[in-house]
Input
Amino acid sequence: MLELSDIQSSQEELQEYYAQLQAQHVTPAWIGGGISTEPRSDAVPCLWHWRDLRPQAIRAAELVGTQQAERRVLRLTNPELPGVASTTLVANIQIVMPGEIARAHRHSAAALRLIIEGRGGYTVVNGGARSDVPRRSRPSPPTGHGMTTPTTPMRR
Output
């Protein structure tokens, strides 16, 4: 039968071992955090309603141009986490108005885009246009991409 091991080491031996690891930029997870028997997070339940967020997105489009903002994005932020929705998810609302472009950018991680409303916008991936269909999700690859909304306005 398998069981947990009980290895007893002296503090001196452990401290010497930890010093060797530190010299190699290695941290034992059992003393450096990050390992637990249950997932831990400071996140608290939080709910964002589109009916409340949509006016804020429209207001952002009225106050900030795409030339002034690298990306005109409202980041959904958990009250207990700095600038993110959860420990595993970043959730943003981006508004691109008719005739505007959002500059191309790159991701190291994959992204999922959900078009909530509008028509005629498209994503440019690696220099080639790719049509987006409203209310459909589209994964954005970790390569460069940008967005364009040629003509169809959103309702205000």
